Automatic annotation (TrEMBL):
Keywords: Membrane, Transmembrane, Transmembrane helix. The keyword Membrane applies. The chain crosses the membrane at residues 154-173. It comes from Caldinitratiruptor microaerophilus. This is YtkA-like domain-containing protein. The keyword Membrane applies.
Length: 191
């Protein structure tokens, strides 16, 4: 391997390591997530729920209800419950509560409802929205990323990429050391 090829390979490896490091550090400041879900009840009632979690733990949810013809449905009662899987549940005022609930209120247009909640902890929350109107009931479920937490799968993928980049860099250095130690007679001398 000549010096130019080795240098190009080392630059490529260094770039991969730098990119992996940036991605890994990005886990600390990942953007908050937005969840959404759609559900249809037995009578054709349709619900679309969207949520927007902020970095400070607040989340705003919008619920849009329509009948089978797409006409907005007013007069619904809707609430949400959110659970942080694996959280320690508080039975008194002390400790972290892994449950959050909220109630939707009309949002100024027929069929449009809004709820705002505050999450006590960062994490991947499981949200369940229950809607009742005119004797019909439906449930929509979504996942909300509060505080910009990456899932375990995403963290694992970035970690594997980082380790692969480090391994590539290390192997490039090993090859360079070995090629520097071996000289071929007639190609710059011998050792």
């Amino acid at each position: 391997m000549n010096d130019a090829a080795f240098s190009a390979g080392m630059r490529s490896s260094a770039i991969r390591v730098a990119l992996a490091a940036v991605l890994w550090l990005g886990l600390l400041v990942a953007p908050a997530g937005a969840g959404s879900a759609r559900a249809t009840g037995a009578g054709g009632l349709r619900a679309e729920v969207t949520g927007e979690a902020m970095q400070d733990g607040r989340a705003v949810y919008t619920l849009r209800l329509t009948d089978p013809a797409g006409v907005p449905v007013a007069g619904a009662r809707a609430r949400l419950e959110a659970e942080l899987p694996g959280a320690v549940y508080a039975t008194s005022g002390a400790g972290l509560s892994g449950l959050v609930d909220g109630t939707f209120a009309p949002a100024g247009q027929p069929g449009l409802y809004r709820a705002e909640v505050r999450y006590p902890a960062r994490g991947i929350w499981q949200v369940r929205v229950e809607v009742e109107v005119a004797g019909q009931r439906l449930v929509a479920s979504l996942t909300e990323n509060v505080g910009g937490v990456w899932s375990e799968e995403a963290r694992g993928a970035v970690l594997l990429g980082f380790l692969a980049a480090i391994t590539s860099l290390w192997m490039g250095l090993s090859v360079r050391r070995r090629s520097a130690a071996v000289r071929v007679p007639g190609k710059g001398g011998s050792r």
